[in-house]
Write a structure and sequence with these properties.
This protein has 151 residues and is α+β, with helices and mostly antiparallel strands. The protein has a single domain (10-147), classed as Thiol Ester Dehydrase, Chain A, CATH 3.10.129. Helix content is 16%, strand content 40%. The chain contains 2 helices and 6 strands; from the N terminus they run H-E-E-H-E-E-E-E. A 6-stranded antiparallel β-sheet has the order 1-2-4-5-6-3, covered by helices on one side. The longest helix has 17 residues, at 62-78. The chain is globular, with a radius of gyration of 15 Å.
C-alpha cells in the first residue's frame, strides 16, 4: 500500500497549500495523477491538539483526520485549475464520514483519495485514511474552487 517514492516533499507541499503550523497536516505526497492521490501525515506526540485530546489517552480528533484528508485532496484538485495561485480550495461538504480506529502518536496516517466528479468548480472525492494498512477513517468530500479576490 505505501510507496517509498516521493512525489511532493514538504517544501513542495508548502508551495501548493496555504496552511502552516499548526494546521499543515500533510507531510508527503507519494502518488499523484489526474484523478487519484496518495500521501501521509506522520502523527507525533508534539501535535498541539494532543494536550487536550485526551490527557493520558492521546487521540487525533476525527475532524483533523478529515482536514488532513481534505488537504491531500486539495493538492489533487489544484491540478485541475489553470493557475492554482489564483484560487482557494474550500471544503463545502463532508458526507458518510466514518471513524474505524483511533489515530495515536507514532502512527503514519496514509491517505488515498479518488476524484469522482469535477464540474463548474465543484469536486466530489472519496477518501480513505489508513494506519498500518487498516482503515482508520473514510469520507466523501465536496470541495469548491473559488477565485481569489483582489482588495
Amino acid at each position: 500500500m505505501e510507496k517509498s517514492e516521493i512525489v511532493f516533499d514538504i517544501h513542495q507541499i508548502m508551495k501548493l497549500l496555504p496552511h502552516r503550523y499548526p494546521f499543515l497536516l500533510v507531510d508527503r505526497i507519494t502518488h499523484f495523477d489526474e484523478n487519484t492521490i496518495e500521501g501521509y501525515k506522520n502523527v507525533t506526540i508534539n501535535e498541539p491538539f494532543f494536550v487536550g485530546h485526551f490527557e493520558g489517552n492521546p487521540i487525533m480528533p476525527g475532524v483533523l483526520q478529515l482536514e488532513a484528508m481534505a488537504q491531500v485532496g486539495g493538492i489533487m484538485l489544484m491540478n485541475k485549475v489553470e493557475d492554482y495561485t489564483k484560487v482557494w480550495v474550500y471544503i463545502v461538504g463532508i458526507d458518510n464520514a466514518r471513524f474505524k480506529k483511533p489515530v495515536t502518536p507514532g502512527d503514519k496516517l496514509y491517505f488515498k483519495l479518488e476524484m469522482d466528479v469535477f464540474k463548474r468548480g465543484i469536486c466530489k472525492m472519496k477518501g480513505q485514511a489508513f494506519v498500518d494498512g487498516k482503515l482508520a477513517c473514510s469520507a466523501d468530500l465536496i470541495a469548491s474552487v473559488v477565485p481569489k479576490t483582489e482588495d
